[in-house]
Design a protein that fits this description.
Number of helices: 4
Helix content: 40-55%
Strand content: 15-25%
Shape: extended
């Protein structure tokens, strides 16, 4: 079965149970599973193995290509490819750290605390660079809301 392994975590052993092996969703950085924690339905986001090493290699190649483009094709220097790649690298590297995502989620919960009648943000229960456990909040996808709004506009 699926197991969560994170050498940097201090999670209580056995706190997560009934972890669904089928991902609820999966992206390029991590995948999300439903589970239970102390009887409560939770979401467990697990970073894909070696994604940070693969991302570092990808950016090493992009940095080299950007410098070559900047050096060898003077008419394209206005693009400032090395700087663009550097900014993109900073943004993507942050995406690999699920504890950073947890801090952002906590900030959203705080900033929208007066809007709980119509907006919910999950509560962070545990976070490490590779694992994020948060409460499950049922709701609608923004894409579904947008699609419904578009359908109403056409009527």
């Amino acid at each position: 079965g699926l197991q969560i392994a994170d050498g940097r975590s201090s999670a209580e052993p056995g706190a997560i149970s009934d972890l669904d092996e089928r991902p609820l969703a999966s992206g390029s950085i991590a995948q999300v599973h439903l589970a239970r924690c102390r009887g409560q339905v939770v979401v467990v986001k697990v970073r894909h193995p070696r994604v940070d090493e693969e991302l570092m290699l990808d950016f090493e190649l992009l940095v080299r290509a950007a410098h070559a483009l900047h050096t060898w094709i003077p008419p394209l220097r206005w693009l400032n490819a090395p700087s663009t790649v550097s900014q993109f690298e900073t943004a993507m590297t942050g995406q690999c750290d699920l504890s950073q995502e947890a801090r952002h989620l906590q900030a959203f919960r705080h900033n929208f605390r007066r809007k709980t009648s119509w907006m919910a943000f999950p509560k962070v229960l545990f976070a490490s660079p590779a694992v994020l456990v948060e409460t499950f909040e049922p709701g609608e996808l923004a894409t579904d809301l947008a699609r419904r709004g578009t359908e109403v506009d056409r009527e």
